[in-house]
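Course exercise 7: structure representation. Students receive a sequence record and must write out the corresponding structure in token form. The form below is the worked example handed out in class, using MITD1 protein (172 residues). Read each field label carefully; the graders check that inputs and outputs are placed in the correct fields and that the protein name is recorded exactly as given.

STUDENT ID: A-19
EXERCISE PROTEIN: MITD1 protein
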Amino acid sequence: FPDGKYHKQIRIEENATGFGYEKLFQEYLTETVSEVWVEDPYIRHAHQASRYSLYNFLRFCEMLVKGPCKVRTIHLLTSYDEGSGRNQQTSGLEEIKQSLRNHGITLNVAFSSSIHDREIRFNNGWMIKIGRGLDYFKRPQGRFSIGYCDFDLRPCHETTVDVFHTKHTKKM
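STUDENT ANSWER:
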């Protein structure tokens, strides 16, 4: 990076399509990536606006399983769902954990009541901050509408994606 720092910003406009996870993350997921950290307070189930956030996290994990990276460990830091949604949240995360284990990947889940920021870090030094976390897709029109399965075809909420390389970010 000639100027000694790297920062790229992507603006996703309201209702834009073509921003599936592969499109956003693929260029940073090199073969050297073996460990991933996801901080997102809203990986939940019942939280109304984030009803799909567990599925979004699952979709993100599927992308990691497909490679080309050789991910062995995923660390998720999120917050507990309030009230009745907590059981679905914990059982959903447990199911994702078991499924990842079948692919040789360990999922470590931790909960924080004070987490606010949303960021994804790869052990090759790349860090991606998405204003809305993994939950930037709009709800599909219906279960049999285009974009339900293929996130590249799913309209997005407006959000900003910032990409940094940690070689050039200060450690706190």
